Description:
Elements lengths: L5 H6 L7 H5 L5 E5 L13 H15 L3 E6 L8 E4 L3 H7 L4 H4 L4 H22 L5 E4 L4 H6 L7 E5 L5 H10 L6 E4 L2 H7 L6 E2 L16 H7 L3 E5 L8 H11 L2 E5 L5 H14 L9 E3 L5 H10 L2 E4 L9 H8 L4 E4 L4 H4 L5 E4 L4 H10 L5 H11 L2 H31 L3 H9 L1 E3 L5 E3 L4 H10 L1
Amino acid sequence: MPAADPINFIDSIDNDAERPALLADKPLRIAMIAHCLYPIAQPFAGGLEMITQLICDELVSQGHEVLLYAHQDSQTQARLVPMLTREKFDNTVYPNEHETLGMSREEMYQYLVYQDVLRDIIERNERGEIDIVHNHSLHHIPMMTGQAFGARFFTTFHTPIFPQLRLALLTLRHGTTTQFTAISKHQQQLFSEFVPSTVVYNGIDVKSFDANIESMDDFTRENDEIYFWFGRICPEKGTHLAMQYCMEAGKKLIIAGPKSNEAYFDEQVAPLLAQDGENGAQRLFNYVGHVTKDEVNRYLCQATAMLFTSTWDEPYGLTLAESLACGTPVIGFDVGASAEIVTPNTGVIVAKEDKDAFIKGFTKIKSISRQACRERALQFCSVAAMVEGYLALYRAAVVESEQQKIQQKKDLETPTDANLKLNSFNHKKGKDNKAEPIIGSSSCLNNMMERG
């Protein structure tokens, strides 16, 4: 016997009181909007792509139906709905069309991409195929057009307030029924000037990381004292600061990551690499380039600690979560959400660019339990915890929407006090003591006015 369709089953329930409770448990139909710049696929262009894929795949594994609107080369367990390609865009608009609109060609492309996405989602919603829309696009068009969905439309803030986001927020600050989530309390505070949001922390696939959870005493006996820094090599990540601190403290450091800012690498990082080992001194640095996730995992398991020297307020900090997942404690700056992720029993957090405090951390970190780091990751940084947070919001929105429909239906079926009074006023008794309508007859109305 085929399985019952839970959606049709819910729709067939006659008892209005039972419908919201049943809706709270049914599989959901979710439209997920990614950004259009990069595929949602490995190797990920950044953390946003990874998070979008993890959310979609976990929702599908739990039995939900997910449509992912994303770059055509994306890889997902969800049903991929490819966004407008640049080739199709170029074939359908004039070469100078963007100039006539006073915008760059890239701005025009993104504008049309998200208009196309929302048109398709709205059409599906009108056919009753969408329960929730979740926007990760970082663009103002979904945020504005999403007003049509009310509380069933969510936007997650992954970044600082870029101009495209601010453009929508300047309008939405005056009122919106759509909902917002932030990936940390720091991020929530940043956007609170414009709209309220609920914190749902990012998650990673913790179980896909091998962990070294030896006691620190056993770890230091079996491994050399060596530290690990990884991420994009650029000014805001502060690679050179980690190198300077290790040089002053005489600590070995492995550096991994792409040169996302060549000028910064040449001016700040390369000179320190060149100085390393001069005059017969012990070499401290090993730059291993852009490495895979498995290689990051291996280096972290061998590291005494991961060094986090970001100088900007990171909304979350995926490298922190990945380090904890490997059982590796963190020495880092107190910027952005770092202190929300790394607790006193999983690392040492110091003021930004406080060199003396950071160097003292090399001693303090040896008392941290690697087991505690892994447990923190499992409880706080997992995909399951992230998706559980989103699902709670999704279900509350669906139930609220259904309750509103039920109330609207009742309002239409039940006359209000005002209507009852009007009906009473608009009737008179005939000879047989039955009420006779008078509204609709101009003569009767004139007679009433004359008598009044």
